[in-house]
Amino acid sequence: MNFTRWSARLPGTQRRAAARTDHAAAPDRRGDGSVPAARAEQLTDDTAPVPAVDELPARDVLDRVPALVALVHGPEHRIAYVNDAYTAAFGVRPPGAPAREALPELAELGLLPLLDQVLRSGKPRTLKSRKALDGRSYTFTCTPVAEDGDRDGDGSVLVFATDVTDHAEAAERLRASERSQRETAVTLQRSLLPQELEEPDDLRIAATYQPGGTEAAVGGDWYDVITLGGGRTALVIGDVMGRGVRAAAVMGQLRTAVRAYARLDLPPHEVLQLLDGLATEIDANQIATCAYAVHDPNEGRLVYASAGHLPILVRDENGTVQRADEPTGPPLGTGGWIHASGSVPLGPGSTAVLYTDGLVERRNEDLDEGIAALERALTGATGTPQVVCDRLVRSAGVTADHDDDVAVLVLQHPTRKGPEGDLFRNAALELLGGVEAAPRARAFASGVLTSWRFPPDLHDLGVLATSELVANSLQHGIPPMRLRLRRTDRRLTIEVTDGDDHLPRRRRAEPGDESGRGIAIVATIASNWGSRRTPGGGKAVWCEFLLPRG
């Protein structure tokens, strides 16, 4: 094999040869007053001639190259040459033997089909960072070599392997570090989300969370379900802007704050107002979107407020989907905005969906198109909340390598009929007149609880609680007043509303006090009690009794 012929075809050789030819052919312009080149001035008779690349012995050069070099010839890629570095790495390789037998390291890496491709196309190909049999990683470059004396046209391929073990190990360490950081971020994110959703009496709820992509930059999506008492349920979903552990930590603080504010049983817009100030204190550079909604089974509506979040979608029992767009304020953490609450019907047979932007936002698609697609998917999505949740995620094309976090919260207000419907009852009485309203309320409660077939002890406790709540309202409240009794399959709720917005509190009554014991009695006999201001002005005071199982 004539190495001198093809050594001139090594990368860069032809350019340098052309440059020398141009320099030699350039006319001597010293006669026209031009200044000779500096290099020409420095040449003297004593300067040793610099050999051209064509004059260098190619084999001696390749034998000393630290990279691995092999030359194979013909369709069977028979070995024409391997340099000393190749021999040191893989051992002696017999000349003339086909590569499939004599170069197992190349066969193991799948390099033989690449050699065929190089021969056919006449174009070089590169295989980056492959781990060879010797345990080290190499980048292989296969370059076609056309020889002047090649009559059969088989041609040769020069295999040039660069040791990139250090780079490969560094890259693997970086990937391992990123995997570890991602696992930490995902673990933190999941630990801050509710491990089990609370189960309200009147709603059926399911949720899903899927971290986006394979990077460590997990987002700050979150959701929560909070039972407020009196049959009411708060639902929240949010998304902290930014990614990584910091976003997840901010999300955890906001979620904890939402649960604390929810216990105050404030209107949705007031909860967002408190969150807005808190978000600024947590991190002035971090903002978050959030939608907070409250469902009251007595009203059959979902009252909500939104801080820059995507609209809630509600599907009624006929399959019609409504988008709860307004009112919407700026994200949490921006400050200076007074939020407002809106409402949307959510009666029996309805389904509502709260979600984050990862479900509907795509890089090459308008956001409204994604929401419209979700509306169409919700129109035909039936079944349990978990089934609906899975179908919506699947219809949006969310996969394991999705590039953004996705959180979805689905709630249904089921239609109950037959025996199940008998377990969900309501009864109400307008408290008209003066002090005579108290005995009328006791008689009404006794009759209702008897018709609902409650055991005697629960019947008596319910009548006592009704008497104390009504008496408290008659003494401290103003008309209009109303008594409401509600039972589910799990609890009995007694609620009294009036027109005064002063909330009662439990206090310690002194022996000589003639009043102040009503709320204390209710708190002692009931499983739970509370109070809240009503949207139209006034207040509601309620208590609950858990029903015996079975």
How is this structure best summarized?
With 550 residues, this protein is an alpha+beta fold.
Q: How would you characterize the overall build of this protein?
A:
The protein is an alpha+beta fold. Helices cover 35% and strands 25% of the residues. The chain has helices at residues 3-7, 13-25, 38-42, 58-64, 84-90, 99-102, 104-108, 112-121, 165-192, 245-262, 268-282, 367-379, 385-395, 418-422, 437-451, 456-476, 518-525; strands spanning 68-73, 78-82, 125-131, 137-145, 156-163, 204-210, 220-229, 232-240, 288-296, 301-307, 312-315, 321-324, 328-329, 342-345, 350-355, 406-413, 425-430, 482-487, 491-498, 528-533, 539-546. Strands 7, 8, 9, 10, 13 and 14 form a six-stranded mixed beta sheet that branches. It has a five-stranded antiparallel beta sheet with strand order 2-1-5-4-3, with helices on both faces. Strands 6-16-15-11-12 form a five-stranded antiparallel beta sheet, with helices on one face. A hairpin with a 2-residue loop joins β7 (220-229) and β8 (232-240).
